Structures are given as C-alpha cells and as structure tokens.
Amino acid sequence: xxxxxxxxxxxxxxxxxxxxxxxxxxxxxxxxxxxxxxxxxxxxxxxxxxxxxxxxxxxxxxxxxxxxxxxxxxxxxxxxxxxxxxxxxxxxxxxxxxxxxxxxxxxxxxxxxxxxxxxxxxxxxxxxxxxxxxxxxxxxxxxxxxxxxxxxxxxxxxxxxxxxxxxxxxxxxxxxxxxxxxxxxxxxxxxxxxxxxxxxxxxxxxxxxxxxxxxxxxxxxxxxxxxxxxxxxxxxxxxxxxxxxxxxxxxxxxxxxxxxxxxxxxxxxxxxxxxxxxxxxxxxxxxxxxxxxxxxxxxxxxxxxxxxxxxxxxxxxxxxxxxxxxxxxxxxxxxxxxxxxxxxxxxxxxxxxxxxxxxxxxxxxxxxxxxxxxxxxxxxxxxxxxxxxxxxxxxxxxxxxxxxxxxxxxxxxxxxxxxxxxxxxxxxxxxxxxxxxxxxxxxxxxxxxxxxxxxxxxxxxxxxxxxxxx
Length: 470
Fold this sequence. Notes:
Shape: elongated
Low-confidence stretches: 1-24, 302-308, 351-388
CATH topology of the largest domain: Porin
Oligomer: single chain
Helix content: 10-25%
CATH architecture of the largest domain: Beta Barrel
C-alpha cells in the first residue's frame, strides 16, 4: 500500500505539470511582475528587495507551498539587473531555483519604452522521502529520490506607454526532466511553447485624481496544454498609499487583494484565495504575502532623442530668439550712441535745464505682456547670453521661481538628488530663473504630468507656465 501511495504521489507531481518557473502559480501579478516576466525587473526604476510566500489549501497536509526573495537594481544607464531565489514544494517534490537577470530599457519617448529581460540560472529537484520510505523495490521511486540539477532560464519583453503595459514571456527556454538519472541535465533548448501573456493599464479617476484603477489580464500557455489558464483582476489605489482589488483565476477561483505603502519605502501586499467553485471542501483556501523594501534613489531613465521635425522646430525657435536678442542689442547701441551725441552737444552749447523724457524701447513679443522696457533694462537683458538656457516657446511644469540664479541651481540639485529630473532656465520677461520638471508643446500633456505628481503628494505647488512664441 505504501508503494502504491508513493506512486500516486509521483503521478500527481507529473500530471500537475510541475514548472521550473514559480511566477504563474502566484496570484498577485501587480505586486511583483518580475516573478512572472523577467522584463519587469526594476520596472519602477528604483532598487528594491522583495520577499514572497504562498500557502495553498491551508488545512491539507503536504499542500503546495512557495517561498522566495528577489533583488532588483536599475543602473544609471539603460541596464537593469535582478536576482531571484525560489523554493517550491508540491506534495513530495521540492524544486529550488536561483537565477540572475539582465534587463535593458530601450526608450522611445518620454512615456514610451520597450524593456527586455533574460534570466539564467540553476535549478534542483528533490523528492522528499525518509530512509524508511526509500526502502522499497520500486526503482522509479529510488531514481526519483536522487538530487537532480538542471539549467534554468526565461525571457521576456514589455512595452510601456504611460499607464499601459503589454508583456510577453517565454517561461521555460531550457528543457529538463525532473527525474533525469544524470547529475546535470543535458543542455537543450525547450520547444518554447511555455508562454505568458500579460496586459495592464493604470489610469487616474476622480476630480482631484487621487484615485487610480489598474485592471490587468494574464494568459498562460503550456506545451502540454494541461496548465493553460487565464486570469483577470482589477486593483483600486488611493494616492498609491493603500489599495485593494479582486481577481479571478480560471482554475484557482476568486481572490481578494489588499496592499499598503508605508513612507514610500515598505510595501505590503496580501491576497486571500477562496477555494475553486468546483471544489467542495472547507479549508481549501490559500494565502499569499509580498513584502517589498525600496532603497536608494529613484533612477531617471535616459530619453531617446526626439524626432527630426521636433528638433527642427526647437532649432528654429532658438534661431528666432537669438535674432531678436541681436536686434535688441543693435537697438540699444543706437539709443546709447544717440544719448552720447546729445550729451556732447549739450556740453558745447549749454541750454536751459529742462526735464527730458527718458527714451524707451519695446521688446519683441516673446512674452505674454509686451510693456515698454527702459533702456537700462534693455542693456541688462540684451548683454552677453546667460550661462543658463532661456525658456523656449511651450508649456512647462514649474516647481520654483528664483531671482537669484544660484538659489535656482541649488533647488534643482535637491530635486535631482531625490531621483527626479529638474532643469533651470531664465524667463527673460520676468527676469526670474524657473525650475521645471517637464516641458511640452501639448498643454494637456503638461497638465496631466502636473496632476500625476500631485496625486503622489509630490510638488504640490507645481503650476503650468506657457511661454508664448511669435
């Protein structure tokens, strides 16, 4: 009877389609997408460490159990790195894997990118039997009880555009037999039919956009077709501080999710999984826990150069501004020469002292208001170009304005030290140095960026400034 029971257990291990990749057995895709698709490594552009644990069918003996941790680290360039360790136990079969991940971010625009990820590592299968249980004449059990090592790996790609993320992963790129009799499996590519497709979209809602919704869908495809499943879920966020959601898995049923973000450093996510509808058994619920610790500075991803038409437009605007400044300089020089001649004549031919109205000079329409500018200010504005750039026509999300250039530079450095992008430029009409975090020719795009920062309690005093053109 004991031999029969062990044989049944082994059959369960085989027919359950034990996989080298633990991700699809987990419920909370939005908590750590890296466990599902290697291209999600450090997708938040911040170093972080994660611990996860899942216990299925809580009141059943030898029920499936998964534990592990991962590290994700974005470099200052386009390379991202990761490492994961996973231990997965199903009945008597225990699988342990450790893998390293190399990722690369290919930026397309400010909000658009394609991310690649390749994981490579080592795995080991072990049948957990006691010496007494191994004392059997069943050769299959004795062979399966020996430690077995193999090469493991997966590959993924993710397309991102603002809140949209579309992913595809090959979850098993090397082929291995869990009960191979050799000490290390022969290096062989799999048929690449183990795949995972994912799609998610996050968007803000509400008058102040404090709330956000993120629905997502997954579909897993296996080589034998026995493990195919789909899953859909929706998560609601409040200022990214607390969130909750519900998901439905084709085979595992309904699950509830709850999460909490503590001081932008610790993230806690928990899900409770109800028994599948077709399983009439109490205590068949499951629990899943994710803990994340974010450390270091948030990285600013390098942005690919804009298209040629945009660059031509920027170059043309620069030329127009420089031309206007040269005209200002010539006009100011003419006024100064006329004043010098008048002073010379006044010295040679004294005249009664009568008040003379000071000449004025009107600056070209490069600002919102075009009030006359005194000569002294015209000289001051039209001298040698300042070391900082001048605001070009467009829309800017401004977070600070300073009359002293060094103060503006210092504030910009403080923003950059926290992992955000900041630029300093002169508004010549106001004679103020603006510190801005975003610029665009699209007013709605600038407003949306400002609202996104405010929704995260960042730069609450930010405003959108329009620099008009000619």
